[in-house]
Amino acid sequence: MKWSEICIHTTHEAIEPISNILHEAGAGGVVIEDPEDLKRDWPDRYGEIYALDPNDYPDEGVNIKAYFPVNSFLGETIEQIKEAINNLLLHDIDIGSHTITVSEVNEDEWATAWKKYYKAKRVTDRLTIVPTWEDYRPESPEEIVIELDPGMAFGTGTHPTTVLCLSAIERYLRPGDRVLDVGTGTGVLSIACAKLGAQSVDAVDLDEVAVKVAGMNVRLNKVQDRVRVQRGNLADHLTGPYDLIVANILAEVILRLINDAGRLLDRGGRFIASGIILKKKEEVKQRLIEAGFAVDEESADGDWIALICRKL
User: 242-248 and 227-231: which strand pairing?
Assistant: First the structure.
């Protein structure tokens, strides 16, 4: 079967929203080629993930590649993607040149090629994310392994915004906490919370595919007794209370979530908000303070920011 590879050259800021646009357009897979990966000081113990070819990466910005079946509707799909990306400008998101190129590939090429970017990775002091097809053994009894298959719900758990969130969860989650994970995606944050001792986790996502993939990963990690995956729009119709809310989503969406986070958290409860681009940080912080939160900590990876907040 022939597939069409759509390659979009854009900025780091636009990775998450454009990936979401591609996913919602029906992409059968998404690959992010980020030249920053070539500069990272990767530990040697994870093997070929670090044997990356610089020729696969742009000199600046990022390439986002998505794969669609070649059919009579492909032209319309590409036009819809272009329109949706242009609309990101209305939300003050820098999309760069957003140059789009299209080429054809065979199914066996795209279905396996992206896996070279995804190997076992130690993302925090205790948490290691391992793709389901990798044979991996923990290096110590304290190491916690999360098995993950991103399926069609783009995201491997190793994006900087996710790692910032996982690091904060590892520091602030207390055994027995009741957790809400908004925009769960592949379910990696929910699984981490359960394995770190959460009493219960409500994992919510608006996308049906993400709900399906997250449910699969929850069962794969044998935490379905503590993690409930459900479809929903942010925190609508949830009653709580929660001790911890985590959200790895765009700053614009976090702004919409803040009031509900305040409603659902017990006093002293934590709100971990990641996915915030640097230029949006002050706006989000100010809105959190106005809503009755104290911003106790900021953490950063490049232009990405995570805020750890406490309900007063």
Answer: unpaired
Tens-digit pLDDT profile for residues 134-188 = 788 888 889 999 998 765 444 566 778 889 999 999 999 999 999 999 999 889 9
Q: Which two tokens stand for residue 62?
A: 């990022």
Task: Tokens for 152, please give them.
Answer: 């069609």
Task: Name the pairing type of β-strands 30-33 and 2-10.
Answer: unpaired
Q: Quick one: tokens of 47?
A: 């093997």
Predicted confidence (pLDDT) per residue in 9-41, tens digit: 999 888 888 888 887 787 766 788 887 665 555
Paired strand residues for 307: 273, 298
List phi, psi (to 5°) of 241.
-80, 160
Architecture per CATH, domain 2-117, reads as 2-Layer Sandwich (3.30)
pLDDT given at position 65: 87
| Contact call for residues 248 and 165 (beta carbons, < 8 A) | yes
Alpha helices in the chain (DSSP H): 15-24, 74-87, 107-113, 160-172, 188-195, 208-220, 251-264, 281-290
Spatial strand order of the sheet with 144-148 comes to: 121-122, 127-131, 144-148
CA distance 62 to 104: 20
Helix (H/G/I), strand (E/B), else coil: 122: strand
Which region among 30-39, 78-87, 131-140, 240-249 has the lowest average model confidence (pLDDT)? 30-39
User: Is-contact 240 200, C-beta < 8 A?
Assistant: no
DSSP state of 35: G
Domain boundaries, the chain: 2-117, 121-311
* 200-237 per-position pLDDT tens digit: 999 999 888 788 889 999 999 999 999 999 999 889 88
The strand pair at 304-311 and 293-301 is best described as antiparallel
Count, residues in the chain: 312
Q: What is the dihedral angle through the alpha carbons of 87, 91, 96, 102, rounded to the nearest 10 degrees?
A: -30
Q: Which two tokens stand for residue 171?
A: 């520091």
* Fold type of domain 121-311: Rossmann fold (3.40.50)
